[in-house]
Structures are given as C-alpha cells and as structure tokens.
Design brief:
There is one protein chain. The protein has helices spanning 14-21, 117-146; strands at 2-10, 34-39, 51-56, 61-70, 75-82, 87-99, 104-115. The chain is globular and about 45 Å long. It has a single domain (2-146), classed as START domain (Alpha-D-Glucose-1,6-Bisphosphate, Chain A, domain 4, 2-Layer Sandwich). The chain is an alpha+beta fold. The protein has two helices and seven strands.
C-alpha cells in the first residue's frame, strides 16, 4: 500500500477556495493537467456515487467515483475506477481547513493505493508532484492573480 500526503497554504479564504474546487466535474477549470470532464449518466457532480470521466493533457482518460462530499467539512473523497497507471484500490481525499491567521486556507490532498512494489514509490511521487502539488500551485496562482 502506497501513501501520498501533500499539503499547502493558499492565500485566499477557505470559502473562496472551496467554491472553486467543490465541483467534482470542475477539474479543467482550475487544474492545468485536466482538459475536459463530464459526469456520467447525467448525475449531479456532488452526488455520492457519481462518476467523472476526464481527459489529461497527455491524452490519457480516467474515471473516478465520488465517495464522500461535505460542504461543511470542505471535503471531497474519490476512488479511481479506471486509469492507465498500474495501480488498484485507490482512494483520495482533498480537504480544506480555515487558517485564521491572514484568512488563508490549509489544503491537504492524500491518497492510498496498491501497486507493484517496484512501481509504488514512482507512482506516489508522480501523483504527489504532478497532480496534488500541481493542483495546489495552480490554485495559489489563481488566487494570487485575483489579489
């Protein structure tokens, strides 16, 4: 089992950051690696069990299922159903917390998955750097441009 934990502080109030990321179908609006997305079967993007089907800039396509969502906790959890990466049993959570010092946001993105021992560290490193930290960097740039 591989674990990934990436955290960051975003210079914007938690409500504004959550407003941008809470849409499970909205990755292309804020994450630079995601270029298109749709929710399958016409379900609502905040409905537990809905499946997002999205494409990366590389052309790869992924399917992820929403497993937990909370406006009160600023939390979204999902599992990967299909990916070109050699991993299974994936679950991830993106959660925001209020930082009262400066009205900022603490963001933490975690994942756990199974992979072959020779692949696990490389996959975890790529997910942490490219997906999670890449997303946080994009959020920081987005809100810095609004300041």
């Amino acid at each position: 089992m591989a674990d990934v934990i990436i955290s960051s502080v975003i210079d914007a109030p938690v409500e504004k950051v959550w407003g941008l990321i809470r849409d499970f179908n909205g990755l292309p609006s804020w994450h630079p690696r995601m270029v298109e997305s749709h929710i399958e079967d016409g379900k609502d993007a905040t409905s537990i069990g809905c499946v997002r089907n999205f494409k990366l800039v590389s052309g790869a396509r992924l399917r992820e299922k929403l497993v937990d969502f909370s406006d009160e906790k600023f939390l979204v959890s999902y599992s990967i159903l299909e990916t070109p990466q050699p991993l299974t049993n994936h679950t991830a959570t993106l959660q925001l917390r209020r930082v009262t010092d400066g009205d900022r946001t603490y963001a933490e993105w975690t994942a756990r998955f199974d992979a072959a021992p020779e692949e696990a560290d490389k996959l975890a490193e790529g997910m942490g750097a490219n997906v999670f930290q890449g997303g946080f960097n994009a959020l920081k740039a987005h809100f810095a441009a609004k300041a």
